[in-house]
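Help needed: design a sequence for this.
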């Protein structure tokens, strides 16, 4: 084979080698998508199984109350956490005093002097004052709500009505209307029964929850006085007064903001409590139409259930 033939053979060999490389390269390109999909299948997580979200336990499911009506109302969110006949209009007894104090605070400065009138000293007990004694509104309200004093409530609503040049029940109605308390109506500031058939004040558990929330927001110092076992104040004449709280539970409720009791023959046992379920998270608990003793048992049960609710458990 001469040199010309050798050159032709070498050239043909190079051409065959280049064609083989091109074929291999093309085959590799075609295989890349398959390799990638295989690798992705190995590393991609399997689709998760659909999991059911557990239902939060109902902390109020086992509640049994003596009360005719009750509510647990979240004042921070406006949510009703528990309700039993919460819109029923029932006698309020001394819970009416909360409306009397709220009515006065809408019209008068907390430092306004309030003088005890003769008619107030002739009401049923509990009473603490003599005719002509004078207190600032804030001090008289603190004593009145803590010890549920009928003479103090009568003096407070009389002063509020005089400021508006209205009757007492008109002044009370104006305060109720300001908060849109549609089931609330009162003819006196103390809540004392007018007769064996007519109460001094009526309202619903829902209305009372909103009223107490408004009072705590408007005058936290007056509300705070009701959370202690006693309250003290000095009249403008220098007479010192110390009264006991009508609620024996005040020392057992965490972060209590307000407490008020009520009891008459028509109303039965009433109770309203406001406590802080968290920082700046007030909750109102209202019990209406229970018995004189069971109102506290009902209130304690609702407090415990509320704390369990916020803890996310069925009970504590």
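Sure. Designed sequence:
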């Amino acid at each position: 084979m001469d040199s010309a033939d050798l050159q032709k053979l070498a050239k043909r060999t190079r051409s065959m080698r280049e064609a083989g490389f091109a074929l291999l390269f093309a085959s590799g390109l075609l295989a890349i998508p398959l390799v990638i999909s295989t690798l992705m299948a190995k590393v991609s997580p399997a689709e998760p199984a659909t999991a059911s979200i557990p239902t939060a336990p109902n902390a109020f499911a086992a509640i049994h109350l003596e009360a005719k009506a009750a509510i647990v109302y979240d004042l921070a969110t406006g949510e009703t956490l528990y309700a039993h006949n919460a819109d029923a209009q029932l006698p309020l007894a001394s819970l009416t005093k909360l409306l009397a104090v709220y009515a006065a605070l809408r019209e008068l400065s907390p430092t306004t002097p309030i003088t005890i009138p003769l008619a107030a000293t002739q009401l049923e007990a509990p009473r603490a004052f003599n005719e002509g004694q004078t207190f600032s509104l804030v001090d008289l309200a603190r004593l009145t709500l803590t010890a549920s004093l009928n003479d103090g409530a009568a003096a407070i609503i009389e002063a509020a009505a005089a400021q508006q040049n209205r009757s007492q029940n008109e002044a009370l109605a104006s305060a109720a209307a300001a908060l849109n308390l549609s089931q609330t109506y009162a003819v006196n500031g103390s809540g004392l029964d007018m007769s064996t058939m007519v109460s001094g004040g009526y309202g619903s558990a829902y209305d009372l929850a909103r009223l107490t929330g408004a009072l705590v927001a408007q005058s936290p110092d007056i509300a705070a006085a009701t959370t202690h076992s006693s309250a003290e104040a000095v009249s403008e004449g220098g007479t010192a007064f110390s009264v006991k709280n009508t609620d024996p539970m005040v020392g057992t409720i965490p972060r209590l903001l307000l407490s008020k009791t009520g009891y008459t023959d028509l109303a039965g046992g009433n109770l309203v409590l406001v406590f802080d379920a968290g920082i700046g998270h007030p909750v109102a608990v209202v019990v209406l139409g229970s018995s004189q003793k069971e109102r506290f048992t009902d209130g304690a049960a609702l407090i415990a259930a509320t704390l369990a609710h916020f803890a996310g458990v069925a009970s504590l």
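Residues 1-47 have pLDDT under 50 and may be disordered.
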